[in-house]
Amino acid sequence: MITIKSPQEIESLRKAGKILTAIVRELKRSLKVGMTTAQIDERAGELMAAHRVVPAFKGYRGFPGVACVSVNQEVVHGIPGQRVVQEGDIVSIDVGVILDGFFSDTAFSVGLGRLAPRLAKLLEVTEQALYKGIAQARVEHHLSDISHAVQDFVESEHFSIVRDFVGHGIGRSLHEDPEIPNFGPPHQGPILKEGMVLAIEPMVNLGSWQTRILEDGWTVVTADGKPSAHFEHTVAITAQGPEILTA
Ligand code: MG
């Protein structure tokens, strides 16, 4: 069941999103070549503590980190550890917070130092794909209009869209209905209504869309070992159109 949020609940989600946006801005500034992914995670944790919000991912189904930190061929759910990030790497960071019982979720990918042109293009297309999806998050559209817009754009740019992981509703829980695939035909699934809040999150691969999970039980990597990128926003559907709560 897709929950419809009241204006007061949207306001709470807006506050959580605003804080998460500030955390992301500061986290991006602190990223440097030579850091371990555990140090990135530690910084995310410090920022959340400073902003007095609770990390949403830590302990979620046993996840050990504050942030998911996924490098290069890692698509999502990378466990922070001793991997050192290098010049030319793509680093994808997914972070979520809880404020007064309300969740907010966002992700971004950045290139460290000088990035190969094809990788820079991958980041650009993935972020644009997110905005193509968000543009469809409108009252009376179908859920799959989001999915279709993302896939259509990504494939028109000759990249591939991950199928095995999807976006989700969000509110008083991190993962609520509906699941939001980033692929599929338009005009299907639930009709979007004012007060729905969605975490839209395309994951885009340089090579094929297939993925696999490493033996740690979390880290998702591309099956062909080629790089991947990930962008996500928490978005409220309003009468005036989509409102990005994490921008
Ligand atoms: Mg998410």
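^ magnesium ion complex. The chain has a mean pLDDT of 98. The longest strand covers residues 90-99.
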